[in-house]
Amino acid sequence: MPFDDRVASLIPSLRAWQEHLHQNPELSFEEVETTAYLEQILSAMPGVTITRPTKTGLVASIRGEKPGVPAVLGVRGDIDALPIDEASGLPYASSRPGVMHACGHDGHTAMLLGLAALLSENRSRFTGEARLFFQHAEELPPGGAVEMVRAGAADGVDAMLGLHLSTNWPTGVFGVRAGVLTAAVDRFDITVKGKGAHCSFPEQGVDVIVTTAQLILALQTISARRVAATDPVIVSICQANAGTAYNILPNEMTLTGAVRSFDPAVRERIKTLIGEITAGITASAGASYDYVWDAGYASVFNDAHLTAIAEETLLSRFGAAHIDHIGPIMPGEDFYAFLDGRPGFFVELGSRCPEKGCDMPHHNPRYRLDQDALPYGVQYLFDMALTLLDGTGKIAPAKNEK
Prior knowledge:
The chain is an alpha/beta fold. It is built from 9 helices and 16 strands. An 8-stranded mixed beta sheet has the order 1-2-4-3-5-16-6-15, sandwiched between helices.
């Protein structure tokens, strides 16, 4: 078994915490009961100082007693759930209709509780401070990370760690990458305005449905023809709404879409192109439009030095078979907000096990988390904390004070 005895002994607690959280999910910015539950558990751990910088976020600080060069290491775990009706069939399925932990955040939270327990018991083995962020509202921009940072919760933190469970990799396999890891996430809303009419006299109106259909197709040319093939980009129309009856041409049609990209310059170009294409197509149809671009999460960038330390730590503990060198991934992450002025490293932790039915994609009603992934995450985070806070100055002080 690749786990320390104490990590192995925590497995029943990790499962119990994850099952409780899974059964009692709360949506972004509504995690009141979740935070109260976490505070109850953490308050029983020696040496843990708890603060509540935001309404539903919690920070647990643990100070080491080992002599040496002090540093402050932050570790993030997100706690919110999704607006999904669960259909997993689990005995501890969500007790709240329409709300489900379908992205592994219950596992992230359980692992961070496990890390807190280990650091609480091992304060003599590290120098400085471990600051654990039980972060609310990762799923809903502008995101809880931004709120925590603006509240000053990350002031003084020298480096950040984070992880995400993923069914894209087998259980216990870590997806590692230096540099840009996640995509920037943006939203756009377009309202095409025409002139309503009876369906039998379309020439008397301006047909927003036909116009918008042309617009939808044209927007797909952005990634296919307006951006270099070497720049990964996704432009997706996810909502289209119009009309009140089968025989009425409506006055308006609304589109809501999502954009994923990695290069900041490309991100800005897409914003401009959507506006230009919308203006051209609506003008050709005699329609008008409103266009709103809502900038969301920026990309997560993994520091090369921390990536190297993480890879060495994983190799030493689990072996090369548990490391996969991955490319950039399209999901977004508000972890980026913690990286303003400080280095960080974010890793993907595999939790796919088809034999247990744990192979559904995230955000799916039948998603199941393989609980065997939990001790892998706890062991990794504990090893990294002891390595980075060993008192030898592996983390340079961050210039992040404002």
